[in-house]
């Protein structure tokens, strides 16, 4: 009798442990997805900045040593012209390495963007993240990000009648699909784990700007 009671208690402990493990796993998946979703949003928010950087090689920082603020113009005491040239070479090498990292990051998100840019729904991405007008023109850097209410009103003026709710759905679906393309299987699993909370979890995430998310 005592052994049976002990076995039942052990079984209950095991089931409780399994339930706890499942809960922890679900929370981890939800947290991972939230981060992946936000990372995708940050990349979209900074897409135009990356684009300008990779298209402006001269402005990226490959400047003459005399104009650089990163290294000293005057060589260390006792050093000669060769030391100054080495400093310049090191400076250029460091800037090029930084440029290549930025370009690689941009190329990755750019390839994903091109998969969706011809879709009707992509206008929400352009207006909400790229800070473009409904006509595809860049807004001023001082302009505040569009709200979904403003996007809906601007599209209505063009004869495209979509509610704020529809526009949010467009946004969420596109960002989820982009997250899967950017992060593969892990992105797909995290999106599935996140869906019960979608709609509120991502709200505000797009306003969390972090340039250069690694």
How does this structure look, described?
- 64% of the residues lie in helices and 0% in strands.
- It has 214 residues and is an all-alpha fold.
- Helix 3 crosses helix 6 and helix 5 crosses helix 6.
SSE order and pairing:
Elements: H1 2-45, H2 47-55, H3 81-116, H4 122-128, H5 148-157, H6 164-194
Helix pairs in contact: 1-6, 2-3, 3-6, 5-6
End-to-end CA span: 60 Å
Sketch the major β-sheet: none
> How do the SSEs run, as a string of H and E?
HHHHHH
Amount of beta strand? under 5%
Number of helices: 6
Overall 3D form = flat
Share in helix: 55-70%
List unreliable stretches of 5+ residues.
64-73, 196-214
- By DSSP, the count of extended strands is 0
**Rg, Å, rounded:** 25 Å
Task: Find the structural class using helix and strand composition.
Answer: mainly alpha
Mean pLDDT: 75
Keywords:
214 residues; flat; mainly alpha; 6 helices; disordered C terminus
How would you briefly describe this protein structure?
With 214 residues, the protein is mainly alpha-helical. It has helices spanning 2-45, 47-55, 81-116, 122-128, 148-157, 164-194.
């Amino acid at each position: 009798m005592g052994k049976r009671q002990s076995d039942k208690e052990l079984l209950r402990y095991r089931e409780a442990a399994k339930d706890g493990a499942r809960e922890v796993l679900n929370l981890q998946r939800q947290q991972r997805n939230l981060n992946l979703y936000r990372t995708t949003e940050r990349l979209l928010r900074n897409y135009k900045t990356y684009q300008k950087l990779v298209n402006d090689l001269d402005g990226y920082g490959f400047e003459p040593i005399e104009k650089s603020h990163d290294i000293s113009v005057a060589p260390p005491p006792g050093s000669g012209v060769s030391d100054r040239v080495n400093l310049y070479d090191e400076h250029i090498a460091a800037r090029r390495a930084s440029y290549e990292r930025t370009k690689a990051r941009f190329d990755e998100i750019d390839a994903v963007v091109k998969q969706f840019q011809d879709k009707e729904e992509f206008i929400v991405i352009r207006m909400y993240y790229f800070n473009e007008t409904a006509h595809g023109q860049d807004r001023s850097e001082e302009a505040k990000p569009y709200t979904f209410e403003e996007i809906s009103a601007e599209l209505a003026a063009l004869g495209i009648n979509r509610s704020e709710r529809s526009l949010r759905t467009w946004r969420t679906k596109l960002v989820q699909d982009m997250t899967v393309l950017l992060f593969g299987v892990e992105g797909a699993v995290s999106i599935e784990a996140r869906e019960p909370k979608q709609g509120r979890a991502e709200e505000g995430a797009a306003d969390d700007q972090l340039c250069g998310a690694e």
